[in-house]
Design a protein that fits this description.
Elements: H1 4-17, E1 23-28, E2 49-55, E3 58-63, E4 66-71, E5 76-81, E6 96-102, E7 107-112, E8 120-124, H2 131-134, H3 147-154, H4 161-166, H5 176-186, H6 199-220, H7 228-235, E9 254-257, E10 262-265, H8 267-270
Antiparallel strand pairs: 1-6, 2-3, 3-4, 4-8, 5-7, 6-7, 9-10
Helix pairs in contact: 1-6, 3-6, 5-6
């Protein structure tokens, strides 16, 4: 799933390649993708693209006086073409969900692999009209997001810290992969209750949030849209590396599986050397 660093890199890429170009056609190719109908997609045609904004994991492309807002969900992606293929796209065939063609021949596709079709596209007058954006918590890389603001979010939270970091209504933009990376950097168990952090631990976790995301944004900056997935994977130290040695201590990275996802962690760095049992069978580590 694209998370804050990859979506920020896509935002910068679109600012460079899309802004100033005129939209010729917008073609919806998957029934499930479009979540709004007024204004229609055709209202974007003939209008000039402006800057692209990011709201957590959402991209909001300004086109004329409207915004084309998308959330790439778990398996969505943006594929840019300097020259779009000549062959017209076929609705319902393959991963293609929506195509935006620009005057001059360039354009991009929104694609989604797999059978769970969650990629979402909205055409709105204001991005805050999108329910997912309206409910977002603060952006962890925003200038006003300081240590005290972070501490206030954790105060009274009785949930495990892994779930809190992934809750878009608490903090915007962090998903499964970067929450694993943040917790490894902060040397924290993913099952620790958010309300159980002392002042020093809150500071360490705050610094891990900002540092991990900033480093990932810098690695992704300037990478072409097609290379961002590989760049993300290459920069992860624990997520997706079950069975490999921890780059910090050399212990074996372990995994806990859930119904539709999994987390990875280092026992030595994060849980006092104790492997976590399956979450459904274990008590929470404090």
């Amino acid at each position: 799933m694209p998370e804050l660093p990859e979506v920020e890199a896509l935002r910068e890429f679109l600012d460079e390649h899309l802004a100033g170009q005129v939209v010729a056609r917008v073609l919806p190719l998957a029934v499930s993708v479009l979540k709004t109908y007024d204004p229609p997609l055709t209202a974007l045609e003939g209008k000039t693209a402006g800057p692209t904004a990011r709201y957590g994991k959402f991209l909001a492309l300004r086109i004329g006086d409207l915004h084309l807002v998308t959330h790439l969900a778990r398996a969505g992606w943006l594929r840019w073409y300097d020259v779009l293929p000549d062959r017209p796209p076929r609705p319902g065939k393959g991963p293609l969900a929506l195509r935006v063609a620009l005057e001059g021949g360039a354009g991009f596709d929104l694609t989604e692999a797999g059978t769970q079709k969650r990629l979402a596209v909205h055409v709105v007058r204001d991005p805050q009209e999108v329910p997912g954006i309206a409910r977002l918590g603060p952006d962890p890389l925003a200038g006003g997001f300081d240590r005290d603001a972070f501490a206030a979010l954790l105060a009274g939270e009785r949930r495990q810290i892994k779930g809190v970091l992934r809750d878009q209504g608490v903090i915007a933009g962090i998903g499964n992969a970067y929450s694993d990376e943040i917790l490894h950097t902060a040397k924290v168990s993913p099952f620790k209750l958010a309300s159980a952090f002392d002042a020093e631990q809150v500071t360490r976790l705050y610094e891990a949030v900002r540092g991990t995301l900033r480093e990932a944004v810098e690695r992704a900056r300037g990478v072409a849209a097609g290379g961002l997935k590989a760049e993300k994977k290459s920069g992860l130290r624990v997520h997706g590396r079950d069975g490999e040695p921890c780059p910090v201590c050399g212990d074996t990275i372990r995994s806990v599986s859930f119904a539709d996802s999994s987390l990875q962690y280092c026992p030595t760095c994060q849980t006092g050397g104790k492997p976590l049992a399956d979450r459904r069978l274990s008590r929470l580590l404090k």
